[in-house]
Amino acid sequence: MEVVGYFDAVTVRPGDRTRLAVAADAGTVDVSLVRLGTDAAIAGTVVDSRLAGRYAVHPQELAGGSSVVVPDAPHLRVGELLSVSFWVLPTRLAAGAQVLMAKRDATGASWTVSTTPQRHVRLEVVGPDGHRGTAVSARPLDDWTWYLVGAGYDIGDRALSLAVHRRADAVHGSVVDDVPTTSWAEGRVPDPGTDLPLVIAASAVADGADGPGPRTTQHFNGKIARPRLYRALLTPAELLADQGLESRHEAIIAAWDFARDVDSRRVVDTSPHRAHARTVQMPGRAVAGPGWDDTVTGLHDAPDRYDAIHFHDDDLDDAGWEATAEWDVDEDLPSGIYGARIVGARGEDTVPIVVRPPQGQATAPVLFVAPLFSWLAYGNFRGFQQLEPNASDAGRYIVDHRLNSLYDRHADGSGVTYTSWLRPIVDLRPGHVMRRGTFSGGPTWGPPYGELPHQLSADLDVLRWLHHEGQAVDVVTDLDVHREGAALLDRYRVVVSGTHAEYWSAAMLDALDAYLGAGGRYLYLSGNGLYWVTGLDPDEGHTIEVRRHGAATAAWHAAPGESFLSTTGEQGGTWRWRGRAPQRLVGVGFSAEWTSGLAHGCAYERTPASHDPRVAFAFAGIGDDELIGDIPNPVLVHGAAGYELDRADHRLGTPRHALVVATARPRNTEHWQAPVEEQLQPRLRADLTFFETAAGGAVFSTGSVAWAGGLSQGGYDNNVARLTTNVLRRFLDPQPFDGAPIRS
Description:
Layout: E1 4-7, E2 11-12, E3 17-23, E4 27-36, E5 45-47, E6 53-57, E7 67-70, E8 81-90, E9 98-104, E10 110-115, E11 121-126, E12 132-136, E13 147-154, E14 159-169, E15 173-177, E16 181-185, E17 198-200, E18 203-210, E19 213-217, E20 222-230, H1 236-239, H2 245-248, E21 252-257, E22 266-269, E23 277-280, E24 284-287, E25 308-311, E26 325-328, E27 336-344, E28 347-355, E29 366-370, H3 372-378, H4 393-400, E30 418-420, E31 433-435, H5 437-440, E32 451-453, H6 456-468, E33 473-477, H7 478-484, H8 486-489, E34 494-496, E35 503-504, H9 506-517, E36 521-524, E37 532-533, E38 535-536, E39 543-545, H10 583-586, E40 588-594, E41 605-606, E42 644-648, E43 659-664, E44 672-673, E45 686-692, E46 698-701, H11 719-732
Parallel strand pairs: 2-28, 29-33, 29-34, 34-36, 35-37, 36-46
Antiparallel strand pairs: 1-3, 3-26, 4-5, 4-6, 4-27, 7-17, 7-23, 8-13, 8-20, 9-10, 9-17, 10-11, 11-12, 12-16, 13-14, 14-15, 18-19, 20-21, 20-25, 21-22, 22-23, 24-25, 27-28, 30-39, 31-32, 38-39, 40-42, 40-44, 41-43, 43-45, 45-46
Helix pairs in contact: 7-9
């Protein structure tokens, strides 16, 4: 992609200020605002806006790699003598030289502890006079193994100390390497530089900023714990003393405790100097340190055992691009999903943004909740990209820039747990289709089997249907629901879901529960929804977190003991295993998914319950024996039940008075599978489900990601659209529903 952009906010109100950052070849781009989902045009309809104009642009770098940055201070500068100790668990030594800790001063003096391409630990010290000393450990390191490292120097005496201790275990015993290869070399007096910050897990360079922090290089892959600094040259025995040394040694400079404030970017120094630091690019917090063992099942059992940070050279939380345009959102802009269309000499991009109603207002009776958390989770899905021979520009950009979704793994094989909107998400675009073959491990199937609309591009089908029906609708995101709760939902008679609303926070579930308890009406047009426990970063508020854990179909699983979210402290995994299965709120929950191959979706068959007078409104104009959704569909070619399916289950919380009015069962079952939690009793089906709530509200659930794909078929003249419209009209009717049991 030659033109790429992102907004610094994805949900705004009229009057809010937001910034659009664009990367492109030097020159200019033309920016216009388009409204998405109002008609059949995938590109959207141009609307008047203050955002429109011509803007100067330049290339902007995507520089990933996480670290801890300690601001420069006099007591941290190189000086004549210094010692450092820390625990380290490397995870990708094959990546070459990687810095563990480093500091450089304005005199050019510096010290660096790093790994070498040969997998050894190396200490390098450069004095103000240019003399350079090096020490290299004798034994190579192994990946995924804890080591205690101690290193020190006395520049005046040309003395170095380096010790590496492998944590003892039954197989390898306790190995101490304290006989390093050392050397000193004459050198020129180095050029004066900048007093750079001390950096853990990377090295700072003097040529500018790198996103939200200094420009860094040689990023480390792995865990680091308990870093300490001392103004003394300690012996190997002292360096390896580890716990308690800082309280006994009068020369302590800094002692960072990675177990504190794990829900933030703050890194606490417990020494008297209080050299507090910040994480950059969101490395993993609340991860097991060298003292963790199998007697500790989670973060709350022993927080001090989670005193490590897991760094990756492909972490990217904030691209930090310069703003190309500032936009004060037009006060008269109707609520909806919009896009900044950016056109340059060599390409174009459309960056989505949700404009919600003004503060505290509803401008329509219907609310569409765009599933932002799910958009983010799937955004930049590297596993779905098929680069040859039909690579998309977005796919190439994702792979070339090492972008990740929450379905991907980092370069060291660990799962990606955080994702943010402060970076380009190039597959979150109108008209984008998902390529499935590579991810599934099977052959890559071309259109129509291997390309399908998903997330934003599928959610726009719901808005197009609403606009086709002439229905006024407000749009917010689930981030807004997370922040404002039921007070936001309560302004609307009907709330409509997105097509794959999979990632939910506890606050979002609470909001929907309260809304339904107050008589709200919810039209659930999703499959595999309300599934993964999701946290929102409370520190800066632009990052979500998922820890995949337990019996669930997952692209990766959290490491032992690391299933608790750092952002919220709560148990990760699926809501089902937290006692909040989706059946409790929407009547249905995940039961089947398409895997690969020449699979089709399927139609729903009406059940006897569909003839119950309580739900007669839904089937007006639909024949008694008529299959529901036996029509073409861009998702899996044919059928309203496709991609991922949900079923009812009273044991998991489906209300006893709920009516399963139609059921769809895949015919080509070899191309479908049950999720892990359903393997012992696989029930591959989607249930069309309706029930009333005690306060006179109601829920109608389709249980299929593909449902919305059928709405527009035949110019909206089909029974998927007819049934959905019937339900919407009844839900808009203020007459209370009275089929629920009386609450005692």
